[in-house]
Amino acid sequence: MHEGHRERMRDRLFADEESVSDHELLEMLLFYCISRKNTNPVAHDLLEGFGDLRGVFSAPPALLGTVDGVGAHTAEFLALIGTLYSRIRREDGARRPHFLNFADTCAFVKERFCGVEEETLELYCLGGEGTLVYLRSVRNARHDRVGIDAKFVGFILSQIRPQGLIVAHNHPSGDMHPSAEDDKAVREILRICALYGTKLNDNIIYTRNGSFSYYCSGRLDQARKERAGANQVP
Q: Are strands 164-170 and 199-207 parallel, antiparallel or unpaired?
């Protein structure tokens, strides 16, 4: 019965997080350190004793351990979550890379790809003011297999919903010029970006001999126009 209850609560949370109350969130968190016990009364006792979620997660482990059902392991777990939350609150995002101009982008791509000999594809998901919110690197990516790339990009965008996207990959051969397969991949990525309201800011090819930017070369704008024209054809 408890296993079914836990699964139903998880389904509710990920379907509509606003439908889950504070005590239910705490109850669910306790699933991960209290395996064979109803955690609902424990969650209620914690909130009653410490007032709210902030109080629970800022309490010292020794005091948390005085609550019935909260052992040493659970108390340390809750205190660790509280420490992580405090550290997150102190962060202002200053350490995250910002892509404010092409020079910033090129410097970042060079740092990421310099010395990399195997074929690699990277996605840089951007938030407001060009802040990097998520980076995903795939080694041995076959950039000419646009079906695989499109599926991968679509999954990432559906989860992150970034404002902007920069795609970067390398040509280990040293030839920085885009291939027909690269052009096809860009058109497909533009299509996927349109589904999620994300702007494709650039597609960069890095090589030991230099880099090629679809944005700076005008090739990205051309691909957008071709895509728009194709969509208007009845």
A: parallel
